[in-house]
Amino acid sequence: MARRMIEAGFREEQWQHRNDPHIAPINRLVDELRRMPGRDSVPYIAPMYGGVDARLLSVLRDPGPKTQEANGGSGFLCMENDDATAEAISNLFSDAGIDAGDIVSWNAYPWYINRAPKAAELEAGVTPLGRIIDLLPKLRVVMLHGGSAHDGWNRLTRQYPKIVAVRGLHVIKTYHPSRQAFWHRDPLVREARKKDLYESFQKAAQYLHNV
Questions:
Q1: Range(s) of the domain holding residue 19
Q2: Of the candidates 36, 95, 119, 197, which lies 20 to 30 Å from 145 by C-alpha distance?
């Protein structure tokens, strides 16, 4: 079970190690993005992740409320945050046998807005997403969770059409792990979405293990 960020000791440990060598280049980028006027809401990436050694990039929509210290959150983008989406994605990675050391998380729009990003906001997220990819020399799998992540990736590949082939990336488009993604009146649709999400994580694990 996730949600270790509610433990003061775990949270302090993450904070103390946020500039460790494996994660420092990514969090320096976060610092750069936070210095933009009115945009200091980009959460740091928790050092429990693989940082520049990660082989899987997990892209969601935007940071959730529990990434924000002003909301009583951790200040980190982390699957150990105290929210249902973080817990769901943590369980999915665990079920697939994918370790946190193989992962880096990011968002199509990296600043906190707590709503679906607009087109211009997704466009603004393209450069940071591209820079994250540049920081991951071992990257092999990109998981795109939900429509905003799909849209943001499409915008990135329009600007850099050779990025997938040149980097040899396996790109997996699936559903967002939040409960909202499964709000549909037809139970067959709900089950099909859950199955797609689960199988996407299993596929990601196969790609990682076959590298």
A1: 4-210
A2: 36
Cα 207 to chain centroid, rounded:
18
Count how many domains the chain has.
1
Entry pTM = 0.94
Query: What SS3 state is found at 89?
Result: helix
CATH number at residue 140: 3.40.470.10
Is the CB of residue 62 less than 8 Å from the CB of residue 114?
Answer: yes
Bridge partners of 103?
56
As a whole number of angstroms, the distance between CA 177 and CA 29 comes to 26
The whole-number mean pLDDT for each consecutive block of 10 residues of the chain, a chain of 211 residues, reads: 83 97 98 86 97 98 94 95 94 97 98 95 97 98 97 97 95 89 76 93 96 58
For the record, the structure tokens of 178 come out as 């939040």
Strand ordering across the sheet containing 56-60: 103-107, 56-60, 141-145, 170-174
